[in-house]
Amino acid sequence: MFHVAAEDRLYEGLRFPPGRFPDPIKLLPSHPSVSRMVRFVAERLPARLLAVLLRGALTSWVGPNNTMYGAGAILVNERGQRVANEDSDKLLARGVASDSNQGYMVFDEALAKRFSAWPNPVSTFPGVAYAYVGDYARYRPDMFHKADTIEELATKAGIDASALRATIQKVREYATAGEDPEFGRTSFGAGIGEGPYYALGPMQSYITLADGGLAVDTTLRVTTPEGDPIPGLYAAGSTGQGGLQLLNHGLHIGWAMVSGRIAGRHAAQAAPRTDLVPVGAKGSVLETPVSELTVIQ
């Protein structure tokens, strides 16, 4: 029996599917010499040119920030219907995933202008690069749609036109009333006003990060709900985080290396076991009915 040390956190969000053209960075061979070459070039490129390259990479897969929803954008499926409360990244991701896994952010000209310059990026690598509405038109034209009317926008994006117009009208009414009876949205921003109108998508739901892991002791032995170590069972990496919350992919890489070394050393130095039963033998785990095995989640 084992248990989760802390409630796992799934970082769920909407992102664009891969583009039609291959990512040049992913085409490079994974070799230290290539990495050193890339670093050498990156450190010597003019800042403006480097920013252009980074915006291209940024818009190739990262979806829009939720600040755009707070400013008035809505999210719909290809049937022109909202699927979740736009106040929450998690709810949007789950709403899209449980529907057709296709979501479109829809907004108006006023919001497009607002998110076309600092300090309102559509998406960002904080402190590294910022992408605006124009960058998505430039680097992901397959995900960028613009039209003078709602119906034309729907046709370009592949969304049901009459349903989209009805949805926008309902959201306008909700914003005026300050209440969303469908999903409980509270931040309506400026809403969707006059055209031209824009849509980004389709976006899909992704889980980019998971935190939490099994409960472990200081030697990374997995423990029972009572805190007792389970003989011979070690966990490392995200599986053995012991409730540790890591908010960056780089931190997970570091923890994977450190925890793997700790768990490996202690497993190698552990005293020989005399209580082990061969797999499949009488009394082994595989002989125990599944109904009698308990996992606390």
Give me the secondary-structure topology:
Elements lengths: L8 E7 L8 H4 L4 H13 L2 H13 L7 H4 L3 E3 L12 H10 L4 E6 H6 L8 E3 L3 E3 L1 H7 L4 E4 L2 H8 L3 H17 L19 E15 L9 E3 L5 E6 L14 H21 L28
Antiparallel strand pairs: 1-7, 2-3, 3-7, 4-5, 6-7, 8-9
Helix pairs in contact: 8-9
The averaged pLDDT comes out at 86
Helical run tally: 10
The main sheet comes to:
5 strands, antiparallel
What global shape is seen? globular
Given helix and strand content, the structural type is alpha+beta
Q: Separation of termini?
A: 11 Å
- SSE order, one letter for each helix or strand: EHHHHEHEHEEHEHHEEEH
- The residue ranges in which pLDDT falls below 50 over 5 or more consecutive positions are 285-297
What is the percentage of strand-forming residues? 15-25%
Question: How many β-strand runs?
Answer: 9
Rounded radius of gyration (Å): 25 Å
Helix amount, in percent? 25-40%
